[in-house]
Amino acid sequence: MSRETLGWGNVSTTLVPAAEGLPTGPLDGQRWSGLARRADADRVRSALLSDDHVGVVITGDRGVGKTHVGRTVVSGFGPDVYTLQLRSSGSTTPYGCLAFTLARLPQSSLGSPTAILHGITALIRDDAAGRKCVILLDNAGTLDELSTGVLLNLVQTGTARLVATAQRTADLPPDFYWLITAGRLAEVRLANLTEVETLEVLQAALGHRVSTALASQLHRIVGGSPTLLQAVVSEQIERGNLVLSGSVWTLVDEVVLDGRTALEDIVRARYAREKPLARELIEVLSCARTLPLARLAQMYGPGLVADMEDAGQIVVDRTGRHLVSLGDRYLGDIVRSWLSVERRLELRDKVPGHQPDELSELTVEDLLAYAAWTHDCDSALAPAHAVAAAGAAVKIFDPKFALKCVSNLTPEDPEWTAGQLPKSAAYLQLGLPLQAMAALDDVSGDQLDALGAEAYTELIVAKVDCMSWLEDRSDQIPGLVRQARERLQVPGGDQSADQLRELTGAGLRLDLCEFGYLSFVGDYEPMMDRLRAAASAEGEDVSALHRLRCRIILMEALCMTGKEIEALKLMREIEGQLGEWSNVPRIRENFAWRAFNVLLLSGKWRQSIDILKDAGGRAGHGQHSGSAPTDLAVGLAYVYAGRGYLAIEPLLAAVAQLEVRASLQSLRQAYAATAFAYAQAGHSADATSYLARARSADASARFAVRSAADFCMDMASRWLGEPEAKERLVHAAEAHFRAGRFTLAGISMLGATVHGTTKDFEFLEQTAKLRQGPLAELTRTIAEGSRKKDAAIIMAAASQAAAMELDAVQARCAALAFDFAKAAGLSSKASAAHAMLESLADSLPALPIMPRSRGPLLTDRERQIAALAGNGESNKDIALSIGISVRTVEGHLYQVFTKLGVSSRSDLLGLI
Predict the structure, then answer these.
(1) Residue 28, in any domain of the structure
(2) Among 566, 588, 789, 811, which has the minimal tally of Cβ within 10 Å of its Cβ?
(3) Which of 629, 661, 621 is closest to 392 using CA atoms?
(4) Which helix (H) or strand (E) holds 249?
(5) How confident is the model at residue 672 (pLDDT cuts 50, 70, 90)?
(6) What is the DSSP letter of 324?
(7) Are both 618 and 740 inside the same structural domain?
């Protein structure tokens, strides 16, 4: 049958896709793939319509949406095209996918394969009734030989075009593979979703905002598969773990996959295809989470391990001990839920290195894996192992698992006191300071007296950490530290060298604890001399790690006290040293968050966002816990830069997460920053709402967070026109000034002087002189220009703000410069200021200060002609382009020159 018989000559005009609208109403599972695959469907359709091809093969891994793309393309052609959907089941039955067609053939057409081939071809032609025909073949890699022959004849004779799906082209029957190599069948390969695409699909499917952190976490779990993504999200919603908080979807707790939904069917189908030894390896890794490559190869042989790695079933870390884990986390979670306690114990006994007498040799990863495996077996950890595992869990920010590890300890256990430390730290990570303090108070006086110098000091440090959050006990901290120092001052000189080293180390630990507490309450000035000395101390008695920790605190203290350039220099020095201390838990995260404050308060807001990439110290089960602080910090950086429209998205994500999970310090700050962002964006109702929430939230927080929250609240109030806001900002600036926190004093005063007095500007200049860096110079210039009402000086300040990308400050300076220039009759400067204001209109719908004279200096027509003239257009060209006379152009230009105070066309460039 010839190609012309069915009229394939002009396919581009006949195979026109039917109208395809966006999905509406509740989304089912298939539409998840459709949301991510519209562009891929277009690629398949284009290849199918090409005269060079007889069909197209869609390839890609399981779950990427191959079948859905094929169905979308086929259904898109509408009733003018006859479509036939086939599926290969993987059996060797002849004509397996064509069985229903075979049943319709007359007996005379069943005598031989040739008769069957012609009979099926004629039947399809009759069904098509003169229309074009497209066949969708799903799972083409398992097609039987006789079905292959029929389909090959259909496409080669032009009876139909083919859309086939397979994981790889190598899986296809040889005849189809030959068509691909010959260029007759096109291939469109579907890749897994990227993180950005995952976020887009989630937001489209769920209908509300989804934080980038949540999208990133779900993307890691499912590996970018739309099918698995839909299954995991459905399961988390069903369990009540994925909830809509406000207008943002967020997780209440860690993602736990128990396979109660379609995800289990997916896993069972994959699991059933594996060989018995591979299944056992999957079971072992599902329980152990990670195992060293050498140990796994010893158990199952390097060949099986290599094959499973090639197939993507397992992942081998190429650094350190080459730890092996399952390629898909959801697979381990669900397989583990199938295993009985007896099976888990049986598997654990097979793994060398997981016996109790070998635990002293385990790393942190091994220790946590052993602890998790033991709990999965409904067994109790030995007390010493429980304490070690809890401490490791706290280090990776997994407080719930830490509490689980020490839950069976009793006061009679020798490890009881040591176990209270990770228990207290876990409660603090959960935002429960009362419970944290109670855990430490449970240590009796006799148990306290029995502690050595180092253990006693660690307990005191833990108590200081807890008491800092409790207003009724924070004033007891200086006395507690003093009492601890007295105990460490052992009389006599008969101590051994080891005892002296322990006492010295304990004393340094108390120094660091005291520095941390003073920075927590914002009392920087009294400790500066001691802190500088500790940060630069040399000698055998002072460890390099102690100096590093002191330098990190000093970096923040220098910034707060007006020495921003020194702080930035020290920050860069520390940043270069951190690589040597990668094995110290949380040291990089501690540095990153303090460095964020240094950069933000120095006016380097873009760099402050960039450095948050180094704040990835939270990992493991508690991974999502780190996203709320990061979202909040990003939003805070944007509002400090005056870009509230960019801050709203991350701030709403942070608020949603903090509202469903208890958190120390952050919720009030998140509400305050969100109110400030909405005020900058001109949404006064939302700003007022979040401002009310901030005022009613708990104010307990470390000083840096508390002061930022207060500043955002007062600035939001001032932006909304609240009269008392200025006075609160001035009082805050005065309090900071008296305490030596000159940087914060300058920032508060800068916000207070939007409508300032001469006295206010003199105070702003005074604080600027006690500070360092470009932000200090900017505030000094603003103060001087505002006090003198000098348009040139204030325009210089606007240029400085523009260089630092501080939009709100730049707009403020431009508005003042406009008013000062108009009052002084400086038309050109007024026009330049007005042009600057107009350029900021998109990013600042609500200006921090409005010019007294809001009308434009030029009419629309004058502005149009001035812009053309400034770009070198002649009067005649201008007249022709806008349809007026040359004389009219000349008249308008005369008015422009007069209003702007310029004398030539070249002077117009940059003013308009």
Answers:
(1) yes
(2) 789
(3) 621
(4) strand 248-251
(5) very high
(6) E
(7) yes
